[in-house]
Amino acid sequence: MNKKTKLIIIFQLIVAMFFLNIPQKAKASVYVSAQSAILMEQGSGRVLFEKEAYKPRRIASITKIMTAILAIESGKMDEMVKVSEKAVRAEGSSVYLKLDEKIKLEDLVYGLMLRSGNDAAVAIAEHVGGSLDGFVYLMNQKAEEIGMKTTHFENPHGLDDHEKHFSTAYDMAILTRYAMNNKKYAKIAGTKVHRAPNPTESWERKWDNKNRLLTELYEYCTGGKTGFTKRAKRTLVTTASKEQLNLIAVTLNGPDDWNDHIQMYEHGFKTYNLAEVLPKGSLEGIKEEMYKKKVYLPQGFNYPIKAGEKDLFEVEYKMKKPDERWKMGEDVPNIVGKATVYFKNQPVKNLSIYYKQETPKEKQSFFELFRSLFTLIIGVKSDG
Asked: Is 116 one of the catalytic residues?
């Protein structure tokens, strides 16, 4: 080996050692193909994974989650909807409604969610909102109400016919979290097949859910909504449950979205467990004498944590100062305090603390006990 060759080898070794000592970025625990993605825990809203989750993008037919929940909350699900020409002419995916036919609003919501019917979306919007514009107003009003801060709706279906129709992966997870608290929505979103009357034909309509994660690919999937337009590309919202952990996944512009969701779910179920931070029922540790064994939480609080995070919780109690009348058992309010749960020094939940009111039966029992003691002291027999 000549001197020149030795120098080349030494130089290559030095370069290799230099690059080995440069701090490397930690590899992401999950790889997703989507431009934007998020994994959120349903109960707490904790974000377990995110990738550009707060960037506004086109959302295509996952728009219909908002359309569905507004229809359900309208209280009109049993009403019959007359299909307009505007609904019949809606472009894209369809449940093939016919002009002037009458169909139950509930069936339209199934057609909307399972088959992504744009004609169903228009028919729903016109019936619930009075007009498309009226319904879009309701959509944006609801978005503001539930905390979708980077969302603007301009139609009930998500087609590319409006420029300012957008949301974020995070906002769509917020919407899904809200919607999944509605039992009717959860049932519809998790339905694999729905049949509806077909008044002009001899056969009934049969709608199979387009969500392959639910129907064939992932055993823990509980529902969701698919979407696609040329400009938005593939969008997908799904939900999944395993061992009391309920998760929400959203991807925007995801060419391999089925696998993206499975990867996120597997990461979530493997990495996180649901910890009971505050149990439901009687609340211990309140120092005020009047409140001892008298205060409770009607609902407990659970939070998803990774290994080693269990000791990162703190709970702060703030109780109302007892009024003199309260000590006599009079006019005690139902809510007498607040418990604030902190995780990593950040507030994550506020819970109202309730006071156990004496029932008329309990008050009577106390009176009977007092009377018995009184008669015993004065030596009067209970029979007179």
From this structure: yes
Quickly name the fold that domain 276-360 has.
Spermidine Synthase; Chain: A, domain 2 (2.30.140)
And the tokens for 26?
């930690």
Say what the pTM is. Answer: 0.84
Q: Per the CATH hierarchy, to which homologous superfamily does domain 36-271 belong?
A: DD-peptidase/beta-lactamase superfamily (3.40.710.10)
Catalytic residue of the set 51, 116, 142, 294:
116
> Where is 11: in which H helix or E strand?
helix 3-20
**Which one is catalytic: 36, 44, 51, 61?**
61
- The token duo for 308 is 């080693």
pLDDT computed for residue 25 by the predictor:
36
Decide if 6 is catalytic: no
pLDDT in tens, 230-280: 999 999 999 999 999 999 999 999 999 999 999 999 999 999 999 999 999
49: left (phi over 0), alpha (psi -120 to 50) or beta: beta
pLDDT digits 0-9 by tens, 64-92: 999 999 999 999 999 999 999 999 999 99
H-helix or E-strand spanning residue 40 = strand 36-41
Is 382 one of the annotated active-site residues of the chain? no
